[in-house]
Design brief:
about 210 residues; alpha/beta; Rossmann fold; two-stranded parallel sheet
Length: about 210
């Protein structure tokens, strides 16, 4: 499969890129600073550009079978990066007839708001991530209305390493609280979803209780 990764230099993006390569997929990375790819640089097709640059996104999307969106915004309190870049990406995918999109948002987006556990729901979300997740809600709305073969992945809060116990993946969050997940688990889930297409047209909440 030919896969475009947006966010390949981020923590989850690097792991997902490495996982896709290990499974034999051909990966293209759209990055602003190719030097940040490190040892991945010689293993992927690199397009230098910004996810907000429509021309760069168009070039990166052309010829792909799927797109994996794992962009992060860094330490910001409010942004429009996610909705703006997703709007550009969807337009390019439609023009280039690339239908498969797997996009990471997170706990606090959509129906998962209030399902991340006491610390996240009462402290981290209202004080630190609320503004970011307001834009991720806008992003999810765009994806859901795109007409593409989309999957939205909402990981629980990241923890170092892999938490004990089986990973849960749910599309109905009623009565569900997921408090933690390892970044490597997210990367594996993303590539599994690209290959297996288990959640096309759905948003899935993943993590551990």
């Amino acid at each position: 499969m030919r896969v475009l990764v947006l966010g390949a230099t981020g923590a989850v993006g690097r792991l997902a890129t490495a996982e896709a390569l290990a499974r034999g997929h051909a990966v293209t990375a759209l990055v602003r600073k190719p030097g940040k790819l490190g040892d991945l640089a010689g293993r992927v097709r690199v397009i230098t550009g910004d996810a907000l640059d429509a021309d760069a996104v168009e070039r990166a999307v052309e010829g792909q079978d799927a797109v994996l969106y794992v962009l992060g915004a860094g330490n910001v309190r409010r942004t429009t990066l996610f909705s703006d870049s997703t709007r550009i990406l969807i337009a390019a995918m439609r023009r280039r007839d690339v239908r498969r999109l797997v996009a990471v948002t997170g706990v606090g987006a959509g129906e998962t708001k209030g399902h991340g556990g006491f610390l996240y729901d009462r402290i981290i979300y209202p004080l630190f991530t609320k503004g970011v997740y307001e834009d991720k809600d806008r992003q999810e709305t765009l994806i859901q209305a795109s007409g593409l073969d989309w999957t939205i992945v909402r990981p629980a809060s990241f923890r170092n390493g892999v938490p004990a116990g089986p990973l849960r993946a749910v599309t109905d969050v009623t009565g569900i609280t997921l408090r933690k997940i390892g970044r490597s688990e997210v990367a594996t889930f993303l590539v599994d979803e690209l290959e297996q297409r288990r959640h096309v047209g759905r948003a899935v909440f993943i993590g551990h209780e």
